[in-house]
């Protein structure tokens, strides 16, 4: 079994420590798992009624029964996220790993255009014509215009409408002039080579990748990750990761125990807790706080320095809203769609068609709508029934089969921006350059004496499971090497995993 010491190149030192972890999401579970393997005693307190945090697999069947499910939280893992894949292997879940087919990966899927909904395989002429109308006539080869058209279409599909409108002009003549010098033949794919593999293009042309405006580096990274052909999923649900981690822990996980206040003192940390109608305090030697800062800033905080309070109150989280339909059958197969996703536009934004891995008699699941940012906010402001009605009406234009009697057997929806224990889906620092992102990560992670921090908001990979794991390893590392001198915690001068990877 690979240990945290082997991952980080460390030898365990120091005495046995008692650690309380706030939050039973992936970051909290990994932190507890690694601290226990280093010989420390750990317990987890979780305000909600389940483990997993923003990994949330909703099953449409009774507990313990096989059947369709929807990923209302994290749903994919880029193969470059080695820590996540390391834990999947560590937990014995390798046989669960299957490809995740992303947006535009099925050429029968749809996208909107000036001519209405088009199949991906038929969209190139309209996309190129629309794109070419905004650049100097006759200046670029057809291949360059095809590249620009698909980059624009992909950005439009990934980014919220407000963000896309604000950066639409970033695909300018400077980028196209560079692309004009590249042989695009190796990057053509799809029906008759009418699509461009953007992930392969940027990987094969690091000079062009390096010239991306600094404030868009993180955005491009996420666009390429989300549209890569090298993404995976877990066959029986992403919640296998937190569930498997929980079974490995020796310490107690207490659900329904809300932390309402944190007081940092020289020699300990005092937690104010509430469970049902009962309020009480708990004095802890060390604490790892993994809850989003949106939730943390609603607590009573004492003993924090001003800089730490600033980052807690200033860190921005983007909402995300998902609506999933449990359908009687995978009707999209009749339409030639075998998987992947469509860019639907409107309030729906993205629609995904998960594979039917189980018995078809149990039906199939469609992730009818996935939206982020202001688009997600617009849906979260509706009641659940209003949200379902709107999505059904809009998506029914592209998929009229939804309106067949008895087609929709059940619906699951999640608005993470309104969810009490998250108040947002993720920190997405798309408009920050690398120096500012790193400065904010360091400040978010910086301990307050015996109080340490983890979570995707404390990582170099925000919004991904990889970031939660990375930050949890770093927090366990800091606690392992922490010594108390004159009442202050002094982390040893070793590089964390994040710093080593930078």
Number of domains: 3
Shape annotation: globular
- Using the coordinates shown, work out and report the CATH topology of the largest domain: FAD/NAD(P)-binding domain
Helix content: 25-40%
Q: CATH H level of the largest domain: which superfamily?
A: FAD/NAD(P)-binding domain
Number of helices: 18
Which CATH top level class of the largest domain fits? Answer: Alpha Beta
Query: What integer value in Å does the Rg equal?
Result: 24 Å
CATH architecture of the largest domain: 3-Layer(bba) Sandwich
Q: How would a crystallographer describe the biggest sheet?
A: 5 strands, parallel
Number of strands: 25
Unreliable residue stretches: 1-13, 484-495
Strand content: 15-25%
- What is the rounded distance between the termini? 26 Å
Describe it.
Mean pLDDT is 91; it is low at 1-13 and 484-495. The protein starts with a helix and ends with a helix. It folds into three domains: 4-53 and 241-315 and 431-501, FAD/NAD(P)-binding domain (3-Layer(bba) Sandwich), CATH 3.50.50.60; 61-80 and 89-102 and 320-415, Alpha-Beta Complex (Polyamine Oxidase, Chain A, domain 2), CATH 3.90.660.10; 120-221, no CATH class. The protein is globular and about 70 Å long. With 502 residues, the chain is an alpha+beta fold. The protein has a five-stranded parallel β-sheet, covered by helices on one side. Strands 19-20-21-18-22 form a five-stranded antiparallel β-sheet. The chain contains 18 helices and 25 strands. Helix 2 runs parallel beside helix 11, helix 2 (26-37) runs parallel beside helix 17 and helix 4 crosses helix 5 (142-158).
């Amino acid at each position: 079994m690979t240990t945290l010491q082997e991952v980080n190149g460390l030898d365990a030192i120091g005495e046995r420590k008692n650690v309380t972890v706030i939050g039973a999401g992936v970051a909290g579970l990994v932190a507890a798992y690694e601290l226990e393997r280093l010989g420390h005693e750990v317990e987890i307190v979780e305000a909600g009624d389940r483990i997993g945090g923003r990994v949330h697999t909703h099953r449409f069947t009774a507990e313990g029964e096989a059947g369709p499910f929807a990923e209302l939280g994290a749903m994919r893992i880029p193969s470059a996220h080695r820590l996540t894949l390391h834990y999947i292997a560590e937990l014995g879940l390798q046989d669960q790993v299957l490809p995740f087919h992303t947006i535009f990966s099925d050429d029968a899927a749809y996208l909107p255009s000036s001519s209405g909904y088009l199949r991906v395989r038929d969209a190139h002429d309209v996309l190129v014509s629309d794109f070419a109308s905004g650049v100097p006539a006759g200046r670029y080869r057809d291949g360059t215009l095809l590249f620009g058209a698909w980059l624009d279409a992909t950005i439009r599909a990934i980014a919220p409408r407000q963000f896309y409108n604000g950066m639409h002009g970033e695909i300018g003549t400077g980028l196209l002039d560079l692309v004009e010098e590249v042989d695009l033949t190796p990057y053509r794919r799809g029906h008759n080579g009418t699509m461009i593999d953007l992930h392969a293009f940027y990987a094969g042309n690091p000079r062009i990748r390096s010239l991306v405006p600094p404030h868009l580096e993180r955005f491009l990274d996420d666009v390429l990750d989300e549209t890569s052909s090298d993404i995976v999923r877990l066959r029986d649900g992403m919640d296998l990761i937190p569930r498997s981690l929980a079974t490995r822990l020796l310490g107690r996980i207490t659900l329904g125990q809300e932390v309402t206040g944190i007081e940092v003192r020289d020699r300990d940390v005092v937690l104010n807790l509430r469970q049902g109608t009962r309020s009480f305090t708990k004095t802890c030697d060390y604490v790892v706080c993994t809850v989003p800062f949106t939730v943390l800033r609603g607590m009573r905080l004492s003993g924090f320095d001003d800089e730490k309070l600033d980052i807690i109150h200033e860190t921005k989280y983007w909402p995300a809203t998902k609506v999933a339909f449990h359908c009687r059958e995978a009707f999209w197969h009749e339409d030639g769609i075998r998987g992947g996703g469509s860019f639907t536009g409107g309030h729906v934004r993205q629609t995904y068609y998960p594979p039917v891995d189980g018995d078809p008699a149990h039906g199939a699941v469609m992730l009818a709508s996935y939206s982020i940012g202001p688009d997600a906010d617009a849906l979260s402001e509706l009641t659940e029934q209003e949200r379902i009605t709107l999505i059904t009406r809009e998506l029914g234009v592209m998929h009229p089969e939804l309106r067949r009697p008895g087609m929709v057997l059940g619906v699951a929806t999640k608005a993470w921006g309104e969810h009490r224990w998250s108040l947002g889906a993720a920190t997405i620092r798309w408009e920050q350059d690398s120096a500012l992102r790193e400065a904010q990560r360091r400040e978010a992670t910086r301990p307050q004496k015996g109080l340490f921090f983890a979570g995707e908001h404390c990582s170099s990979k925000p919004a991904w499971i990889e970031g939660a794991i990375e930050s949890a390893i770093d927090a366990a590392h800091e606690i392992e090497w922490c010594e108390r001198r004159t009442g202050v915690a002094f982390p040893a001068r070793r590089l964390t995993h994040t710093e080593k990877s930078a």
